[in-house]
């Protein structure tokens, strides 16, 4: 029958492409090994340095989370001979947290050589600088940094899932930067793949042509050679000038225990050599270049980096804080125009981090200092809490970013922490028209501000892609989160795009989890900054036995205060241990109590010895016990253990 014939034809095509892929792998591996080990072949460093600017291609892989970016990057590295076939998976995911979670957190760059005749004429050797990027919305800062060094992008879409929210967000980031888009449908070998439907979605959303869409499988290597040929033929070479004054864009920086600050750079104009002196445009500080190289993906030292090259640079300065991400480096005593940088990281979620044991504060300080050396998007400032002691107020790009930071603190440095409830950055409008940023609930008085002073809350424009049958549930969720609908359009018969304007405070807590729960995990979500708006934001305090606990204070909208107060006092009642006296747990807005729970006291059975007699004898004993409990409550203090804060927050 027709379906059986189609399956047989597809199987034959996949077998043929797999054999072609294996032959390419074998030939490229042999060529690579002979070029590295043979006496008559020039070294890899010389080959990398001799590729001219017009045969250099800088490109990135962008996609939604879990659409196969790192797997496709592995196949590309195998095909070019950079790594051996059948080695470690996801070679560009170097952090333990990346391998544990199966996600990309840090963008990684690698330089490979590829011989192709796709650009016309005889086959020539091309230098391809590939940058693998994260896919989650929290790490859009890493994506924007990567795209600033590229001239083209592989827009990857899972053929089993179709266009997702982050796919659209990264597409517009690439479009903003003027990059050439190469659309790729991945995972076409899977039985659930619907390539024609996905291609139609890409045509309607991204405006590409059907013949431009490449159909590949990053897992099996099906048709992967066409990806490299498309990069050679479609992506233009860098626009740099080798004879112009040297200008270098600082893309990233990480700390090496033995070599100090390792700068990831792109040489835009001119050439930089080992031993040259360079100057920072932002700080005016001078550096001496000690080492230059490219990642292949193992570091390969070279004598110089020319216009269009992406590599690493080590200077005589070991402190990472001297390197400003997005800075322009130029030759010593030369005057140049600074390069256009990229959008700086803007913290969207703030949390207080405190050690479980207050004696471990110095250990936490050292761990945070070391970790922030490799993550420029985290902001840190000191904070003191009456309940938790000394700690830090940290700003993150989102909840996943914060969670990854916590996990890295625990796994890489063995530091146990307590993280307070996440808050978003509010803005206080003063009487004189100035604004003060507020990142902690303690910055706002418990009674609120006078009418002349207002509080503005941040807004985001959220993009949600879902199935038509769950639209009602999503509308209900967004209305409950004080959302305003902006747009609703159909991608095709099975996909709907919805755009909402939402307060960031409603999104930062559990919006993504609630969205997945209501849509059985099929909806995808992405958001971008949409400015500020005046809001009725109040500080809610939690009182334990009449004493406010500063670590549990939160900023909420007045309409949600009672619901949030009831929830937190109920959870605190379950977490707090019982005492010998009654404990009142209250949520308050200023002087008004909006929710209350009571933990009953441990009681001795004082009437157990009364076997008979008048009832007044039992009442007398009970009244005596009651008076004792009142006296104990007046003088007793509730010591909340750190384990309780950890369980509650």
From TrEMBL:
Residue ranges annotated for the Tr-type G domain, each copy included: 54-239
Note the PROSITE patterns from the entry.
G_TR_1 (PS00301), G_TR_2 (PS51722)
Q: Which Pfam families match?
A: EFG_C, GTP_EFTU, LepA_C
GO cellular-component terms in the record?
mitochondrion
**SUPFAM superfamilies for this protein:** EF-G C-terminal domain-like (SSF54980), P-loop containing nucleoside triphosphate hydrolases (SSF52540), Translation proteins (SSF50447)
Q: Name one GO biological process term.
A: positive regulation of translation
For this UniProt record, give its keywords in alphabetical order, as a comma-separated list. Answer: GTP-binding, Hydrolase, Membrane, Mitochondrion, Mitochondrion inner membrane, Nucleotide-binding
Could you state a single Gene Ontology molecular function term? GTP binding
Domain of life of the native organism:
Eukaryota
Mind telling me which InterPro entries this protein's record contains? EF-4 (IPR006297), EFG_III/V (IPR035647), EFG_V-like (IPR000640), G_TR_CS (IPR031157), LepA_C_sf (IPR038363), LepA_CTD (IPR013842), LepA_IV (IPR035654), P-loop_NTPase (IPR027417)
Family membership noted in the UniProt record: Belongs to the TRAFAC class translation factor GTPase superfamily. Classic translation factor GTPase family. LepA subfamily.
What is the protein's name according to its record?
A: Tr-type G domain-containing protein
Q: Which organism does this record belong to?
A: Ostreococcus mediterraneus
